[in-house]
């Protein structure tokens, strides 16, 4: 059963680390584009004559559509060279940003954001498992960290810079700047990404087969639990810092910047460690996501306590993307694109469910009730990683006994 991206093919790039960096810039571009409205929601709403709640569709719509488009892109791409797909998606991202910058109405803007969702699903599904095709095996962990480092970098640099451009030049120029940047990333891809021919083509049947893969099933459940837990709480990080930790509003940006820096550190640590011991890495991350809401409730009632919790939070969540993707690649080493597409779908469903459920719980039970529920989801993820690790250890012990005593 050969799939469209086989990790056993080995590196194919003449300048592998430049190619890896280019893919990392692609993830930076798509995540920055995805999250750009976060810092521009009010001016977008004012210009288009809509409420802030309606304007939030510019964030939730592409996230949900990415969950649908990720497997569709992999299936529809068939045997097409993955370099061409990436470049094509980056070209569409340029168009989506230009269309957003020119949007005269909500309908136009949402149409552009639908295109962003298509690009998100495709780029993540293709880029997520490219490390093994670009660098030698011993460097896959670091290369995967660089590729997923685009997520943390988008939070630390991309979204704040977009908000800054929007403040001084208007929100349309923020999208126009992102269109220019995405165009430069496309040019870099054309120059340094090698040909990445498909080994085969994914089918609906093969997707269904992988859904029956027990190890992949565990990874998808972990993705839903971890991501939903995080976004259930993180959606309300501003009111938490203000009402619980007592920060003035003008400190929120600094706290989020510190969180983002910690996230970048967590991303690279997890990428390196997960390559050697994936289960233990995800166990540590789950524990960090469990401790975050508990510490907010017990020790976050001061500036120092709130700042310390934010650093722990960034460190823990920063490793989620690369840790889970490493799990997926190991669960389906000969079906990496399918695993990545399913992972992208679960990840974005987790974002949507976590944010929506968090809103409902916060309205009904307050911020404390929301944090306890987030804690419960993280605890479930921790128990699942521990149970899976125990099961694997028992299987290894049984295999050793069988080998030493063949009967």
Ends: how far apart?
34 Å
Kindly state the mean pLDDT as a whole number?
Answer: 82
Note the run of SSEs as H and E: HHHHHHHHHHHHHHHHH
Per CATH, what is the topology of the largest domain?
Answer: Growth Hormone, Chain: A
Keywords: Cell membrane, Membrane, Transmembrane, Transmembrane helix
Subcellular location: Cell membrane
Domain Major facilitator superfamily (MFS) profile: 17-393
Protein name: MFS family arabinose efflux permease
Q: What would you say about this model in short?
A:
The chain has helices spanning 16-35, 41-48, 52-55, 57-77, 82-102, 106-127, 131-134, 140-169, 171-192, 204-211, 214-234, 237-244, 252-274, 278-299, 303-318, 320-331, 336-404. By secondary structure, the protein is mainly alpha-helical. The protein has 2 domains: 1-202, MFS general substrate transporter like domains (Growth Hormone, Chain: A, Up-down Bundle), CATH 1.20.1250; 203-407, Up-down Bundle (Growth Hormone, Chain: A), CATH 1.20.1250.20.
């Amino acid at each position: 059963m050969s799939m469209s991206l086989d990790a056993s093919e080995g590196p194919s790039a003449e300048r592998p680390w430049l190619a890896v960096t280019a893919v990392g810039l692609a993830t930076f571009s798509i995540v920055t584009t995805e999250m750009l409205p976060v810092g521009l929601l009010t001016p977008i709403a004012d210009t288009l004559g809509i409420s802030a709640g309606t304007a939030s569709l510019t964030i939730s719509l592409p996230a949900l559509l990415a969950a649908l488009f990720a497997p569709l892109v992999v299936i529809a791409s068939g045997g097409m060279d993955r370099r061409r797909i990436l470049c094509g998606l980056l070209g569409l991202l340029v168009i989506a940003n230009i269309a957003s910058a020119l949007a005269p109405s909500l309908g136009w803007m949402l149409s552009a954001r639908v295109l962003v969702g298509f690009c998100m699903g495709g780029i993540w599904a293709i880029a997520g498992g490219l490390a093994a095709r670009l660098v030698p095996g011993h460097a896959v962990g670091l290369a995967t960290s660089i590729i997923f480092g685009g997520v943390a970098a988008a939070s630390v640099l991309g979204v704040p810079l977009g908000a800054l451009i929007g403040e001084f030049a208007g929100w349309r120029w923020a999208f126009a700047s992102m269109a220019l940047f995405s165009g430069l990333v496309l040019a870099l891809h054309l120059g340094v990404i090698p040909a990445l021919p498909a080994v085969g083509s994914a089918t609906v049947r093969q997707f269904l087969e992988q859904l029956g893969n027990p190890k992949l099933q565990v990874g998808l459940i972990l993705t839903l639990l971890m991501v939903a837990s995080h976004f259930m709480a993180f959606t309300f990080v501003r009111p938490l810092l203000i009402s619980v930790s007592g920060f003035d509003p003008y400190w929120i940006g600094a706290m989020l910047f510190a969180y983002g820096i910690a996230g970048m550190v967590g991303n690279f640590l997890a990428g390196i460690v997960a390559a050697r011991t994936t289960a233990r890495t995800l166990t540590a991350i789950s524990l960090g996501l469990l401790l975050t809401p508990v510490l907010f409730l017990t020790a976050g009632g001061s500036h120092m306590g709130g700042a310390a919790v934010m650093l722990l939070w960034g460190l823990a969540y920063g490793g989620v993307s690369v840790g889970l993707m490493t799990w997926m690649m190991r669960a389906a080493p000969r079906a990496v694109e399918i695993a990545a597409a399913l992972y992208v779908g679960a990840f974005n469903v987790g974002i949507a469910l976590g944010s929506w459920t968090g809103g409902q719980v916060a309205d009904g039970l307050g911020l404390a009730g929301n944090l306890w529920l987030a804690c419960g989801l993280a605890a479930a993820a921790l128990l699942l990683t521990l149970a899976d690790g125990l099961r694997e250890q028992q299987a290894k012990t049984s295999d050793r006994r069988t080998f030493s005593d063949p009967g």
